[in-house]
């Protein structure tokens, strides 16, 4: 997140981690906007205070579902806005709905939103979310093959190899992933390749884009630039500059 936002995030462990990727809480220090990278996951956002827009569409209380996106999404927020959310792992939301899991029931989501309106912080939010995950509400395994395929893609296993490791046919897997996530396995491969390049730019600011392209499985530097811009809505060079600018501002704040 940018220095316009204070973001707290909890990565679950144990059984709940099979369903939830992250539980997060954000407070805007100033009015601004932030691009959210797509990663094939879905979520629920709870606008608590202030104004919040996603891709220029206002998100209104008590909550809004964030569906799988094929590109980065623009989050716009007012000064002092407070909002938080649950980020589900890919393929999980349809399974939660099919299993009638309480975390996606309207009554549960409204109850969480009501409590947050009274008092909101990450610790309370995490406690609320965890209370809906008990041994009585376990997911079935309709999506286990899709999860396995996506896990391979996250690890940058070539798509053809990932298909070969699965017990289902390529056509069956393509249909399941598309039905459960709204995007194809091929698009997942693109998403995670760009995500790896994004991390490489962040961790190695001086590394050449040509080297990053090779390291992350792109054909060449132009291929990296084209894919990065298509999915992140910003070029690799612009993303690197944004990171450097944010670091400079943070350093000024520390030594002021």
TrEMBL record:
<keyword id="KW-0805">Transcription regulation</keyword>
<dbReference type="InterPro" id="IPR009057">
    <property type="entry name" value="Homeodomain-like_sf"/>
</dbReference>
<dbReference type="InterPro" id="IPR050204">
    <property type="entry name" value="AraC_XylS_family_regulators"/>
</dbReference>
<keyword id="KW-0238">DNA-binding</keyword>
<protein>
    <submittedName>
        <fullName>Helix-turn-helix domain-containing protein</fullName>
    </submittedName>
</protein>
<feature type="domain" description="HTH araC/xylS-type">
    <location>
        <begin position="143"/>
        <end position="242"/>
    </location>
</feature>
<keyword id="KW-0804">Transcription</keyword>
<dbReference type="InterPro" id="IPR018060">
    <property type="entry name" value="HTH_AraC"/>
</dbReference>
<dbReference type="Pfam" id="PF12833">
    <property type="entry name" value="HTH_18"/>
</dbReference>
